[in-house]
Write a structure and sequence with these properties.
about 5% strand; mainly alpha; 19 helices; disordered N terminus
Length: about 625
Protein backbone atom coordinates (compact mmCIF):
# COMPACT_ATOMS: atom_id res chain seq x y z
CA UNK A 1 0.00 0.00 0.00
CA UNK A 2 1.42 3.37 -0.90
CA UNK A 3 2.28 5.60 2.05
CA UNK A 4 -0.20 8.23 3.09
CA UNK A 5 1.03 11.80 3.26
CA UNK A 6 0.16 14.35 5.94
CA UNK A 7 -2.19 16.15 3.56
CA UNK A 8 -4.29 13.01 2.96
CA UNK A 9 -2.93 12.12 -0.47
CA UNK A 10 -1.19 8.90 -1.37
CA UNK A 11 1.99 8.59 -3.32
CA UNK A 12 4.17 5.77 -4.51
CA UNK A 13 7.32 7.73 -3.70
CA UNK A 14 8.91 7.26 -0.25
CA UNK A 15 8.12 9.83 2.35
CA UNK A 16 10.54 12.75 2.45
CA UNK A 17 11.27 14.74 5.60
CA UNK A 18 10.39 18.44 5.20
CA UNK A 19 13.27 20.86 4.98
CA UNK A 20 13.85 23.72 7.39
CA UNK A 21 12.48 26.30 4.97
CA UNK A 22 9.28 24.28 4.52
CA UNK A 23 8.76 24.02 8.25
CA UNK A 24 9.22 27.77 8.68
CA UNK A 25 6.79 28.39 5.83
CA UNK A 26 4.15 26.23 7.53
CA UNK A 27 4.55 28.11 10.77
CA UNK A 28 4.18 31.41 8.99
CA UNK A 29 1.03 30.22 7.17
CA UNK A 30 -0.56 29.22 10.48
CA UNK A 31 0.19 32.63 12.00
CA UNK A 32 -1.27 34.60 9.05
CA UNK A 33 -5.09 34.83 9.02
CA UNK A 34 -6.80 34.34 5.65
CA UNK A 35 -8.70 37.61 5.72
CA UNK A 36 -5.79 39.74 6.88
CA UNK A 37 -4.69 42.82 5.02
CA UNK A 38 -1.54 42.11 2.94
CA UNK A 39 0.08 45.28 4.27
CA UNK A 40 -0.44 44.16 7.85
CA UNK A 41 1.16 40.73 7.38
CA UNK A 42 4.61 40.46 8.97
CA UNK A 43 7.06 39.32 6.36
CA UNK A 44 9.57 36.59 7.24
CA UNK A 45 12.49 38.82 6.26
CA UNK A 46 11.48 41.37 8.86
CA UNK A 47 11.22 38.70 11.53
CA UNK A 48 14.67 37.43 10.62
CA UNK A 49 16.13 40.95 10.82
CA UNK A 50 14.73 41.42 14.32
CA UNK A 51 16.25 38.12 15.35
CA UNK A 52 19.60 39.18 13.95
CA UNK A 53 19.52 42.44 15.90
CA UNK A 54 18.90 40.53 19.13
CA UNK A 55 21.73 38.17 18.23
CA UNK A 56 24.08 41.08 17.58
CA UNK A 57 23.46 42.60 20.97
CA UNK A 58 23.87 39.25 22.69
CA UNK A 59 27.06 38.33 20.84
CA UNK A 60 28.83 41.66 21.20
CA UNK A 61 28.87 42.02 17.42
CA UNK A 62 28.28 45.11 15.31
CA UNK A 63 25.26 47.23 16.20
CA UNK A 64 24.61 47.95 12.54
CA UNK A 65 24.82 44.87 10.32
CA UNK A 66 24.80 46.77 7.03
CA UNK A 67 28.48 45.87 6.46
CA UNK A 68 29.25 42.62 8.30
CA UNK A 69 26.19 40.66 7.19
CA UNK A 70 27.64 37.21 7.86
CA UNK A 71 28.99 37.94 11.32
CA UNK A 72 26.85 35.26 12.98
CA UNK A 73 28.99 32.63 11.18
CA UNK A 74 32.26 34.32 12.06
CA UNK A 75 34.75 32.82 14.50
CA UNK A 76 34.64 36.03 16.55
CA UNK A 77 30.91 35.52 17.19
CA UNK A 78 31.56 31.96 18.36
CA UNK A 79 34.35 33.09 20.67
CA UNK A 80 32.05 35.70 22.18
CA UNK A 81 29.52 32.96 22.96
CA UNK A 82 32.19 30.87 24.70
CA UNK A 83 33.02 28.45 21.84
CA UNK A 84 36.76 28.57 21.30
CA UNK A 85 39.11 26.76 18.94
CA UNK A 86 42.79 25.90 19.01
CA UNK A 87 45.39 27.87 17.03
CA UNK A 88 45.23 27.22 13.31
CA UNK A 89 47.58 24.80 11.63
CA UNK A 90 49.79 26.63 9.15
CA UNK A 91 50.96 25.54 5.71
CA UNK A 92 54.56 26.72 5.59
CA UNK A 93 57.10 25.31 3.10
CA UNK A 94 60.03 27.51 4.07
CA UNK A 95 62.22 24.50 4.80
CA UNK A 96 61.25 22.63 1.61
CA UNK A 97 62.56 25.41 -0.61
CA UNK A 98 66.08 24.69 0.59
CA UNK A 99 65.80 21.10 -0.62
CA UNK A 100 65.97 22.32 -4.23
CA UNK A 101 68.55 25.07 -4.59
CA UNK A 102 69.92 26.51 -7.80
CA UNK A 103 73.71 26.37 -7.66
CA UNK A 104 76.33 27.09 -10.34
CA UNK A 105 75.58 23.80 -12.08
CA UNK A 106 72.02 25.01 -12.74
CA UNK A 107 72.75 28.55 -13.90
CA UNK A 108 70.53 28.21 -16.97
CA UNK A 109 67.53 27.49 -14.78
CA UNK A 110 68.40 30.37 -12.45
CA UNK A 111 68.63 32.86 -15.33
CA UNK A 112 65.11 31.99 -16.43
CA UNK A 113 63.79 32.21 -12.88
CA UNK A 114 65.49 35.57 -12.43
CA UNK A 115 63.86 36.96 -15.59
CA UNK A 116 60.47 35.75 -14.37
CA UNK A 117 60.53 38.15 -11.39
CA UNK A 118 60.07 35.29 -8.88
CA UNK A 119 63.70 34.78 -7.90
CA UNK A 120 63.23 36.61 -4.59
CA UNK A 121 60.83 33.89 -3.43
CA UNK A 122 63.69 31.40 -3.24
CA UNK A 123 65.22 33.21 -0.25
CA UNK A 124 62.60 35.32 1.54
CA UNK A 125 60.36 32.58 2.93
CA UNK A 126 60.27 32.26 6.73
CA UNK A 127 61.06 28.84 8.07
CA UNK A 128 59.18 29.51 11.32
CA UNK A 129 55.65 30.86 11.67
CA UNK A 130 53.86 31.81 14.88
CA UNK A 131 50.51 30.02 15.13
CA UNK A 132 49.01 32.09 17.98
CA UNK A 133 49.88 35.40 16.32
CA UNK A 134 48.56 34.48 12.87
CA UNK A 135 45.45 32.84 14.34
CA UNK A 136 44.63 35.96 16.35
CA UNK A 137 44.81 38.11 13.23
CA UNK A 138 42.65 35.64 11.29
CA UNK A 139 39.97 36.15 13.93
CA UNK A 140 39.91 39.86 13.06
CA UNK A 141 39.59 39.33 9.30
CA UNK A 142 36.21 40.27 7.86
CA UNK A 143 35.30 38.76 4.44
CA UNK A 144 32.91 41.55 3.43
CA UNK A 145 35.56 44.26 3.64
CA UNK A 146 38.70 42.09 3.13
CA UNK A 147 40.33 43.96 6.01
CA UNK A 148 41.43 43.31 9.58
CA UNK A 149 39.10 45.05 12.03
CA UNK A 150 41.38 46.41 14.75
CA UNK A 151 40.24 48.35 17.85
CA UNK A 152 40.99 51.69 16.16
CA UNK A 153 39.95 50.99 12.56
CA UNK A 154 40.57 48.80 9.55
CA UNK A 155 43.88 47.60 8.15
CA UNK A 156 44.77 45.21 5.34
CA UNK A 157 47.55 43.85 3.18
CA UNK A 158 47.85 46.12 0.14
CA UNK A 159 49.58 45.70 -3.19
CA UNK A 160 52.27 48.04 -1.88
CA UNK A 161 52.87 45.62 0.99
CA UNK A 162 53.20 42.70 -1.41
CA UNK A 163 55.62 44.56 -3.68
CA UNK A 164 57.79 45.74 -0.77
CA UNK A 165 57.80 42.53 1.25
CA UNK A 166 58.31 40.03 -1.59
CA UNK A 167 59.77 42.07 -4.49
CA UNK A 168 57.55 40.36 -7.06
CA UNK A 169 55.63 42.13 -9.86
CA UNK A 170 52.16 43.44 -8.98
CA UNK A 171 51.36 44.73 -12.47
CA UNK A 172 50.87 42.77 -15.64
CA UNK A 173 48.40 40.24 -16.98
CA UNK A 174 45.81 38.86 -14.61
CA UNK A 175 46.18 35.17 -13.77
CA UNK A 176 42.88 33.78 -14.98
CA UNK A 177 41.61 30.32 -15.90
CA UNK A 178 38.42 29.82 -17.84
CA UNK A 179 37.37 26.69 -15.96
CA UNK A 180 38.74 24.21 -13.40
CA UNK A 181 41.17 21.62 -14.73
CA UNK A 182 40.02 18.03 -15.08
CA UNK A 183 42.25 15.11 -14.10
CA UNK A 184 42.61 13.92 -17.70
CA UNK A 185 43.58 17.42 -18.81
CA UNK A 186 46.11 17.58 -15.96
CA UNK A 187 47.69 14.34 -17.14
CA UNK A 188 47.96 15.67 -20.69
CA UNK A 189 49.52 18.89 -19.40
CA UNK A 190 52.15 16.99 -17.42
CA UNK A 191 53.10 14.95 -20.48
CA UNK A 192 53.30 17.98 -22.73
CA UNK A 193 55.09 20.51 -20.51
CA UNK A 194 57.15 18.28 -18.20
CA UNK A 195 57.94 15.39 -20.54
CA UNK A 196 56.62 12.66 -18.26
CA UNK A 197 54.96 9.49 -19.47
CA UNK A 198 51.23 8.87 -19.37
CA UNK A 199 51.70 6.16 -16.75
CA UNK A 200 53.71 8.39 -14.41
CA UNK A 201 51.28 11.29 -14.80
CA UNK A 202 48.21 9.13 -14.17
CA UNK A 203 49.80 7.42 -11.19
CA UNK A 204 50.72 10.78 -9.62
CA UNK A 205 47.28 12.40 -10.03
CA UNK A 206 45.62 9.24 -8.73
CA UNK A 207 47.79 9.33 -5.63
CA UNK A 208 46.89 12.99 -5.04
CA UNK A 209 43.21 12.22 -5.83
CA UNK A 210 43.01 15.55 -7.63
CA UNK A 211 44.56 17.35 -10.63
CA UNK A 212 47.69 18.00 -8.56
CA UNK A 213 51.21 16.68 -8.14
CA UNK A 214 53.26 16.27 -5.01
CA UNK A 215 56.10 18.64 -4.30
CA UNK A 216 58.27 15.64 -3.44
CA UNK A 217 57.51 14.12 -6.86
CA UNK A 218 58.74 17.28 -8.60
CA UNK A 219 61.99 17.28 -6.62
CA UNK A 220 62.66 13.58 -7.22
CA UNK A 221 62.17 13.80 -10.99
CA UNK A 222 63.74 17.15 -11.88
CA UNK A 223 66.14 18.37 -9.15
CA UNK A 224 69.04 16.34 -10.55
CA UNK A 225 68.97 18.01 -13.98
CA UNK A 226 71.93 20.35 -14.56
CA UNK A 227 73.22 22.57 -17.36
CA UNK A 228 74.97 19.56 -18.90
CA UNK A 229 71.62 17.87 -19.61
CA UNK A 230 69.73 18.10 -22.89
CA UNK A 231 68.06 21.38 -23.72
CA UNK A 232 64.56 19.90 -23.51
CA UNK A 233 65.32 18.45 -20.10
CA UNK A 234 66.54 21.85 -18.88
CA UNK A 235 63.28 23.43 -20.07
CA UNK A 236 61.24 20.72 -18.33
CA UNK A 237 63.25 21.19 -15.14
CA UNK A 238 62.75 24.96 -15.28
CA UNK A 239 58.99 24.58 -15.52
CA UNK A 240 59.01 22.03 -12.73
CA UNK A 241 61.10 24.34 -10.51
CA UNK A 242 58.73 27.28 -11.08
CA UNK A 243 55.72 25.07 -10.32
CA UNK A 244 57.44 23.86 -7.17
CA UNK A 245 58.29 27.45 -6.23
CA UNK A 246 54.77 28.88 -6.49
CA UNK A 247 53.35 25.77 -4.82
CA UNK A 248 55.58 26.35 -1.80
CA UNK A 249 54.97 30.11 -1.62
CA UNK A 250 52.27 32.07 -3.43
CA UNK A 251 49.67 29.32 -3.85
CA UNK A 252 50.32 26.98 -0.93
CA UNK A 253 47.14 24.96 -0.41
CA UNK A 254 45.91 23.06 2.61
CA UNK A 255 47.14 19.71 1.36
CA UNK A 256 50.58 20.85 2.55
CA UNK A 257 52.20 18.38 0.14
CA UNK A 258 50.99 19.11 -3.41
CA UNK A 259 50.44 21.89 -5.95
CA UNK A 260 47.72 22.24 -8.58
CA UNK A 261 48.77 21.35 -12.12
CA UNK A 262 46.70 24.21 -13.53
CA UNK A 263 49.50 26.68 -12.68
CA UNK A 264 51.77 24.80 -15.07
CA UNK A 265 49.92 26.43 -17.96
CA UNK A 266 51.44 29.77 -16.88
CA UNK A 267 54.94 28.38 -17.60
CA UNK A 268 54.24 27.14 -21.10
CA UNK A 269 56.11 30.10 -22.60
CA UNK A 270 59.01 30.76 -20.23
CA UNK A 271 59.69 34.13 -21.84
CA UNK A 272 56.23 35.37 -20.73
CA UNK A 273 56.41 34.34 -17.08
CA UNK A 274 57.49 37.81 -15.99
CA UNK A 275 54.46 39.44 -17.64
CA UNK A 276 51.96 38.20 -15.02
CA UNK A 277 50.81 40.14 -11.96
CA UNK A 278 52.02 37.54 -9.50
CA UNK A 279 51.64 39.85 -6.51
CA UNK A 280 47.97 40.56 -7.20
CA UNK A 281 47.26 36.85 -7.66
CA UNK A 282 49.07 36.00 -4.42
CA UNK A 283 47.07 38.65 -2.56
CA UNK A 284 43.73 37.40 -3.92
CA UNK A 285 44.64 33.84 -2.94
CA UNK A 286 45.63 34.91 0.58
CA UNK A 287 42.42 36.94 0.94
CA UNK A 288 40.40 33.82 0.16
CA UNK A 289 42.37 31.68 2.59
CA UNK A 290 41.84 34.24 5.36
CA UNK A 291 38.13 34.33 4.56
CA UNK A 292 37.92 30.56 4.83
CA UNK A 293 39.80 30.60 8.15
CA UNK A 294 37.15 32.87 9.71
CA UNK A 295 34.71 29.94 9.85
CA UNK A 296 34.57 28.17 13.18
CA UNK A 297 34.91 24.66 11.75
CA UNK A 298 38.13 25.46 9.83
CA UNK A 299 41.32 24.33 11.52
CA UNK A 300 44.01 25.21 8.95
CA UNK A 301 45.30 28.30 7.13
CA UNK A 302 46.68 28.14 3.60
CA UNK A 303 48.28 30.79 1.44
CA UNK A 304 51.67 32.41 1.77
CA UNK A 305 52.03 32.78 5.53
CA UNK A 306 55.38 34.56 5.12
CA UNK A 307 53.57 37.50 3.53
CA UNK A 308 51.06 37.69 6.39
CA UNK A 309 53.70 37.29 9.09
CA UNK A 310 56.06 39.87 7.57
CA UNK A 311 53.14 42.30 7.23
CA UNK A 312 52.44 41.94 10.95
CA UNK A 313 56.11 42.52 11.75
CA UNK A 314 56.17 45.67 9.62
CA UNK A 315 53.07 47.33 11.04
CA UNK A 316 53.35 46.16 14.68
CA UNK A 317 57.11 46.18 15.35
CA UNK A 318 56.87 46.87 19.08
CA UNK A 319 54.58 43.91 19.74
CA UNK A 320 55.85 40.94 17.77
CA UNK A 321 58.93 41.64 15.66
CA UNK A 322 62.62 40.91 16.05
CA UNK A 323 64.61 42.90 13.44
CA UNK A 324 67.73 41.70 11.70
CA UNK A 325 70.27 44.52 12.03
CA UNK A 326 72.32 43.24 9.08
CA UNK A 327 69.44 43.89 6.65
CA UNK A 328 69.93 46.26 3.71
CA UNK A 329 67.12 47.98 1.80
CA UNK A 330 68.07 46.39 -1.51
CA UNK A 331 66.62 43.07 -0.31
CA UNK A 332 62.94 42.14 0.18
CA UNK A 333 61.46 43.41 3.42
CA UNK A 334 60.56 39.88 4.43
CA UNK A 335 64.28 39.39 5.15
CA UNK A 336 64.33 42.33 7.52
CA UNK A 337 62.90 40.22 10.35
CA UNK A 338 64.00 37.20 12.31
CA UNK A 339 60.90 35.01 12.50
CA UNK A 340 60.26 33.44 15.86
CA UNK A 341 57.45 31.75 17.72
CA UNK A 342 56.06 34.02 20.40
CA UNK A 343 55.65 32.30 23.78
CA UNK A 344 52.19 33.77 24.37
CA UNK A 345 49.02 31.75 24.08
CA UNK A 346 46.25 32.52 21.63
CA UNK A 347 44.11 34.09 24.34
CA UNK A 348 47.01 36.28 25.43
CA UNK A 349 47.53 37.54 21.88
CA UNK A 350 43.81 38.25 21.58
CA UNK A 351 43.86 40.38 24.69
CA UNK A 352 46.95 42.23 23.51
CA UNK A 353 45.21 43.07 20.26
CA UNK A 354 42.07 44.12 22.14
CA UNK A 355 44.18 46.60 24.11
CA UNK A 356 46.14 47.76 21.07
CA UNK A 357 46.50 51.54 20.76
CA UNK A 358 46.82 53.51 17.57
CA UNK A 359 50.24 54.73 18.72
CA UNK A 360 51.60 51.16 18.53
CA UNK A 361 51.04 50.93 14.76
CA UNK A 362 53.63 51.77 12.12
CA UNK A 363 51.40 53.06 9.36
CA UNK A 364 54.07 53.74 6.74
CA UNK A 365 56.94 51.30 7.31
CA UNK A 366 58.54 51.50 3.83
CA UNK A 367 59.72 55.11 3.72
CA UNK A 368 63.39 54.14 3.70
CA UNK A 369 62.64 51.43 1.15
CA UNK A 370 61.37 53.85 -1.50
CA UNK A 371 64.84 54.62 -2.86
CA UNK A 372 65.32 50.99 -3.85
CA UNK A 373 61.67 50.13 -4.48
CA UNK A 374 59.37 53.07 -5.35
CA UNK A 375 55.71 53.18 -4.43
CA UNK A 376 53.60 51.34 -7.07
CA UNK A 377 50.71 53.44 -8.33
CA UNK A 378 48.60 50.33 -8.78
CA UNK A 379 48.28 50.17 -4.99
CA UNK A 380 45.56 52.86 -5.40
CA UNK A 381 43.57 50.52 -7.67
CA UNK A 382 40.00 50.02 -6.44
CA UNK A 383 38.33 46.94 -7.86
CA UNK A 384 38.72 43.17 -7.94
CA UNK A 385 41.85 41.06 -7.98
CA UNK A 386 41.84 37.54 -9.35
CA UNK A 387 43.74 34.28 -9.13
CA UNK A 388 42.24 31.60 -11.33
CA UNK A 389 38.71 31.02 -10.04
CA UNK A 390 39.28 33.18 -6.94
CA UNK A 391 37.94 36.75 -7.14
CA UNK A 392 38.29 39.11 -4.19
CA UNK A 393 37.56 42.85 -3.73
CA UNK A 394 40.41 45.24 -3.07
CA UNK A 395 39.49 48.39 -1.09
CA UNK A 396 42.33 50.92 -0.57
CA UNK A 397 39.76 53.56 0.43
CA UNK A 398 39.17 51.66 3.69
CA UNK A 399 42.84 51.89 4.77
CA UNK A 400 43.86 55.41 3.76
CA UNK A 401 46.05 55.75 6.84
CA UNK A 402 48.38 53.10 5.43
CA UNK A 403 49.02 55.45 2.50
CA UNK A 404 49.62 58.54 4.65
CA UNK A 405 46.12 60.03 4.28
CA UNK A 406 43.48 60.93 6.84
CA UNK A 407 40.97 58.12 7.14
CA UNK A 408 37.40 59.03 6.25
CA UNK A 409 34.20 56.99 6.40
CA UNK A 410 34.50 54.69 3.36
CA UNK A 411 31.64 53.71 1.06
CA UNK A 412 30.03 50.32 1.33
CA UNK A 413 32.16 47.46 0.01
CA UNK A 414 31.12 46.03 -3.32
CA UNK A 415 30.34 42.40 -4.00
CA UNK A 416 32.78 40.77 -6.46
CA UNK A 417 31.32 39.35 -9.67
CA UNK A 418 31.16 35.67 -10.48
CA UNK A 419 34.39 33.99 -11.61
CA UNK A 420 32.77 32.92 -14.90
CA UNK A 421 32.74 36.57 -15.97
CA UNK A 422 36.50 36.48 -16.28
CA UNK A 423 36.58 38.44 -19.53
CA UNK A 424 35.06 41.51 -17.87
CA UNK A 425 37.43 41.23 -14.92
CA UNK A 426 40.43 40.97 -17.22
CA UNK A 427 39.37 44.05 -19.17
CA UNK A 428 38.78 45.95 -15.94
CA UNK A 429 42.23 44.99 -14.66
CA UNK A 430 43.99 45.85 -17.92
CA UNK A 431 42.65 49.41 -17.60
CA UNK A 432 43.68 49.74 -13.97
CA UNK A 433 44.92 53.28 -14.53
CA UNK A 434 41.29 54.31 -15.08
CA UNK A 435 40.21 52.82 -11.75
CA UNK A 436 42.59 54.44 -9.30
CA UNK A 437 41.25 56.40 -6.37
CA UNK A 438 40.83 60.03 -7.33
CA UNK A 439 42.35 62.87 -5.36
CA UNK A 440 38.92 63.65 -3.98
CA UNK A 441 38.48 60.05 -2.76
CA UNK A 442 41.90 60.08 -1.13
CA UNK A 443 41.18 63.28 0.78
CA UNK A 444 43.85 65.14 2.70
CA UNK A 445 47.26 63.88 3.66
CA UNK A 446 48.19 63.49 7.30
CA UNK A 447 49.89 66.51 8.73
CA UNK A 448 52.72 64.34 10.05
CA UNK A 449 53.94 61.14 8.46
CA UNK A 450 52.79 57.99 10.22
CA UNK A 451 50.40 59.75 12.61
CA UNK A 452 47.37 57.60 11.67
CA UNK A 453 44.82 60.41 11.65
CA UNK A 454 41.11 60.04 10.98
CA UNK A 455 38.16 62.37 10.77
CA UNK A 456 36.35 62.98 14.10
CA UNK A 457 33.22 61.05 13.11
CA UNK A 458 35.11 57.96 11.92
CA UNK A 459 35.42 56.20 15.28
CA UNK A 460 31.73 56.63 16.14
CA UNK A 461 30.81 55.08 12.76
CA UNK A 462 33.38 52.30 13.12
CA UNK A 463 32.21 51.42 16.62
CA UNK A 464 28.69 50.92 15.26
CA UNK A 465 29.49 48.67 12.28
CA UNK A 466 32.47 46.66 13.57
CA UNK A 467 33.44 44.11 16.20
CA UNK A 468 36.32 45.87 17.89
CA UNK A 469 37.19 43.33 20.59
CA UNK A 470 37.31 39.55 20.26
CA UNK A 471 37.94 38.16 23.72
CA UNK A 472 34.70 38.29 25.78
CA UNK A 473 35.05 40.20 29.06
CA UNK A 474 33.86 37.33 31.24
CA UNK A 475 36.65 35.12 29.83
CA UNK A 476 39.38 37.75 29.94
CA UNK A 477 42.37 37.24 32.22
CA UNK A 478 41.57 38.96 35.54
CA UNK A 479 38.88 41.23 34.12
CA UNK A 480 35.19 41.60 35.01
CA UNK A 481 34.43 44.86 33.22
CA UNK A 482 31.89 45.37 30.49
CA UNK A 483 32.97 44.86 26.89
CA UNK A 484 32.13 48.32 25.60
CA UNK A 485 33.65 50.09 28.57
CA UNK A 486 36.88 48.09 28.27
CA UNK A 487 37.59 49.34 24.76
CA UNK A 488 40.38 51.86 24.21
CA UNK A 489 39.22 55.38 24.78
CA UNK A 490 39.01 57.89 21.96
CA UNK A 491 41.23 60.27 23.87
CA UNK A 492 44.79 59.44 24.78
CA UNK A 493 46.77 60.98 27.57
CA UNK A 494 49.64 63.32 26.93
CA UNK A 495 52.18 60.77 28.12
CA UNK A 496 50.89 58.13 25.69
CA UNK A 497 51.12 60.62 22.84
CA UNK A 498 54.67 61.58 23.75
CA UNK A 499 55.73 57.95 23.90
CA UNK A 500 54.16 57.28 20.50
CA UNK A 501 55.98 60.24 18.97
CA UNK A 502 59.30 59.18 20.46
CA UNK A 503 58.86 55.61 19.28
CA UNK A 504 58.06 56.83 15.79
CA UNK A 505 61.35 58.70 15.67
CA UNK A 506 63.35 55.73 16.96
CA UNK A 507 61.51 53.27 14.72
CA UNK A 508 62.73 54.97 11.56
CA UNK A 509 66.31 54.89 12.82
CA UNK A 510 66.14 51.18 13.58
CA UNK A 511 64.63 50.41 10.18
CA UNK A 512 67.56 52.11 8.44
CA UNK A 513 70.04 49.44 9.52
CA UNK A 514 73.73 49.93 10.27
CA UNK A 515 74.56 51.92 7.16
CA UNK A 516 73.66 55.25 8.78
CA UNK A 517 76.07 57.71 10.30
CA UNK A 518 76.56 58.25 14.02
CA UNK A 519 75.19 61.79 13.71
CA UNK A 520 71.92 60.41 12.43
CA UNK A 521 71.61 58.08 15.43
CA UNK A 522 72.46 60.92 17.81
CA UNK A 523 69.94 63.24 16.18
CA UNK A 524 67.15 60.68 16.54
CA UNK A 525 67.99 60.00 20.18
CA UNK A 526 68.11 63.73 20.91
CA UNK A 527 64.77 64.22 19.19
CA UNK A 528 63.17 61.39 21.19
CA UNK A 529 64.48 62.98 24.36
CA UNK A 530 63.09 66.37 23.36
CA UNK A 531 59.67 64.85 22.74
CA UNK A 532 59.56 63.04 26.07
CA UNK A 533 60.71 66.10 28.05
CA UNK A 534 58.71 68.71 26.11
CA UNK A 535 55.83 70.84 27.42
CA UNK A 536 52.39 69.40 28.05
CA UNK A 537 49.88 69.46 25.25
CA UNK A 538 46.42 68.06 24.67
CA UNK A 539 45.96 65.63 21.81
CA UNK A 540 43.03 63.64 20.51
CA UNK A 541 43.12 59.89 20.15
CA UNK A 542 41.84 59.70 16.61
CA UNK A 543 42.31 63.03 14.93
CA UNK A 544 45.27 64.95 16.37
CA UNK A 545 48.56 64.25 14.55
CA UNK A 546 51.96 63.69 16.07
CA UNK A 547 54.97 65.87 15.20
CA UNK A 548 56.98 64.54 12.32
CA UNK A 549 60.42 63.08 13.00
CA UNK A 550 63.43 64.96 11.78
CA UNK A 551 63.94 62.47 8.95
CA UNK A 552 60.61 63.38 7.32
CA UNK A 553 59.54 66.41 5.40
CA UNK A 554 57.58 68.88 7.54
CA UNK A 555 55.00 71.23 6.03
CA UNK A 556 55.82 74.88 6.20
CA UNK A 557 53.59 77.39 8.05
CA UNK A 558 52.56 78.86 4.70
CA UNK A 559 51.17 75.54 3.46
CA UNK A 560 49.24 74.55 6.57
CA UNK A 561 47.34 77.07 8.73
CA UNK A 562 47.52 74.93 11.87
CA UNK A 563 51.21 74.18 11.71
CA UNK A 564 53.44 75.21 14.58
CA UNK A 565 57.11 74.22 14.73
CA UNK A 566 58.00 71.75 17.47
CA UNK A 567 59.57 73.05 20.65
CA UNK A 568 63.05 71.69 21.30
CA UNK A 569 64.07 71.22 24.92
CA UNK A 570 67.68 70.61 25.78
CA UNK A 571 68.65 67.78 28.11
CA UNK A 572 68.13 68.38 31.84
CA UNK A 573 71.14 69.02 34.06
CA UNK A 574 73.10 66.05 35.25
CA UNK A 575 73.94 65.19 38.82
CA UNK A 576 77.19 67.17 38.57
CA UNK A 577 76.40 70.66 37.27
CA UNK A 578 78.82 73.52 36.70
CA UNK A 579 78.51 76.57 38.97
CA UNK A 580 76.07 79.23 37.77
CA UNK A 581 77.54 81.84 35.43
CA UNK A 582 76.79 85.50 35.09
CA UNK A 583 74.25 84.74 32.34
CA UNK A 584 72.15 82.66 34.68
CA UNK A 585 69.18 84.21 36.48
CA UNK A 586 69.61 85.19 40.14
CA UNK A 587 69.22 82.39 42.65
CA UNK A 588 65.78 81.64 43.93
CA UNK A 589 65.53 82.51 47.64
CA UNK A 590 63.09 80.45 49.63
CA UNK A 591 61.71 82.51 52.56
CA UNK A 592 61.98 81.13 56.08
CA UNK A 593 58.95 79.32 57.55
CA UNK A 594 56.50 81.24 59.69
CA UNK A 595 56.97 81.53 63.43
CA UNK A 596 54.13 79.14 64.12
CA UNK A 597 55.92 76.38 62.23
CA UNK A 598 57.36 73.74 64.58
CA UNK A 599 59.95 71.37 63.08
CA UNK A 600 59.71 67.71 64.05
CA UNK A 601 61.74 66.47 66.98
CA UNK A 602 65.10 64.87 66.09
CA UNK A 603 65.22 61.09 66.30
CA UNK A 604 68.71 60.08 65.28
CA UNK A 605 71.10 62.41 67.07
CA UNK A 606 69.68 64.41 70.00
CA UNK A 607 72.96 66.23 70.46
CA UNK A 608 72.91 67.69 66.94
CA UNK A 609 72.19 71.45 66.82
CA UNK A 610 68.71 72.47 65.65
CA UNK A 611 68.43 74.24 62.29
CA UNK A 612 68.29 78.01 62.32
CA UNK A 613 64.81 79.09 61.29
CA UNK A 614 66.08 82.50 60.22
CA UNK A 615 68.51 81.13 57.64
CA UNK A 616 67.38 81.32 54.00
CA UNK A 617 67.84 78.40 51.63
CA UNK A 618 69.37 79.17 48.26
CA UNK A 619 68.41 77.07 45.20
CA UNK A 620 70.11 77.59 41.83
CA UNK A 621 68.02 77.20 38.68
CA UNK A 622 69.86 76.25 35.53
CA UNK A 623 68.77 78.20 32.46
CA UNK A 624 68.37 76.82 28.93
CA UNK A 625 71.25 78.30 27.02
CA UNK A 626 71.15 78.21 23.27
CA UNK A 627 73.59 75.87 21.62
CA UNK A 628 76.37 77.70 19.77
CA UNK A 629 76.99 76.63 16.22
Amino acid sequence: MPPRTRGGYTSSAPRRRPTGSERRRRVQLREVEPAADPDSVEHPQHDRDEHEEVFEGASGGPIDRCILRSFDKHIAAKIWLGEDRAPLKLVNHGAKLQLWELDMERSRIYETVHRSGLASLTSCSHRVASRPMLSAFCERWQPETTTFHMPFGEMTITLDDVASILHIPVTGSMISFSQPLHVDDANALLVELLGTTDVDASRETEQCRSPSVRLLWLRDHFSTITDASFDDDVVFATRAFLLHLVGCTLFADKSATSVAVVYLELFRDLSMVGSYAWGAACLAYLYRQLTTATRFEVRQLGGYVTLLQAWIYEHFPEMFSSPDMSYTESRPRALRWRPHVIPDSLQSVRERLDRLQISEVCWEPYEYHRAEHPFPDIAWYSGCIKCGQVVEPYHPERVLRQFGYIQTIPPRPFTPPRPDRSSLLVQYWERWTDHLLTDQSRGRRCLYSGSGESVPEYMAWYDRISHRIVQPPQLRSGSTTDARSSMPSHAASTSDTRIARALTSLRHVISGGRDQSADYFWGALNEAHDILSGPDETTAYHSTPSPAPACHSTPSPATHPFFSPPTFVYPPPTSVDPPPSSDDPPPLVVPPPPASFAPPAPTSDPSAPAPDSTTSTTVYVRSKRKKKT
